[in-house]
Amino acid sequence: MEMKWFVLGVAICIASFAITGAFALGLEVWFKTIAKGQYCNYYGEDNYVVKDERSFKDLMAKAGIIVNDSVNFKREMVIATFYGWKPTSGYDITIRSIEIVPNTTAVSNKDVMIVTVVKKKPAENCILLPVITAPYHIVKLPRFDGEVIFKEITVIEPCNTLSIAKDE
């Protein structure tokens, strides 16, 4: 009988650690890409959190981007990230993940949103097209009224090599 209670206690402890660990790691947030590309008129290397229609229209006009998806700003918001003008091809920017995590600072106990942005750039000595690019990624997601933090990761992409298959 005592072993049964011991096993039940261990199971409850494991479950509570698993649940606590899941919240400590963060809650993944659904998002939908509404615009992504290599060319726009926005030359800055910036991130935006947009929560109203006027600001969204102004930003899209400044960037020269047409978005066909509608955004209900009462329930949704937009995150836009721009890599800036680059001198060649080979650059890209992607919002990889968005999650809500507990804030562990003593200043606030409110949750924060972490937006992970991956910036890809070509390795040195790659053969690239000599064309100005301006990569961007724009997503919509459920509205969040807390603090949004951008975590940027830069990845150096190796040069692509062509492999030539021999006919035998």
Describe the structure.
The chain has 168 residues and is of the alpha+beta class. It has one domain. It has 2 helices and 8 strands. The chain has helices at 2-25, 53-63, and strands at residues 27-28, 32-37, 47-50, 76-82, 92-101, 112-122, 136-142, 147-157. The protein has a 4-stranded mixed β-sheet with strand order 1-5-6-8. Strands 2-7-4-3 form a 4-stranded antiparallel β-sheet, with helices on one face.
Sheet/helix structural class: alpha+beta
Number of helices: 2
Helix content: 10-25%
User: What's the count of strands?
Assistant: 8
Averaged pLDDT, please? 86
What Rg do the Cα atoms give?
22 Å
The major sheet is characterized as: 4 strands, mixed
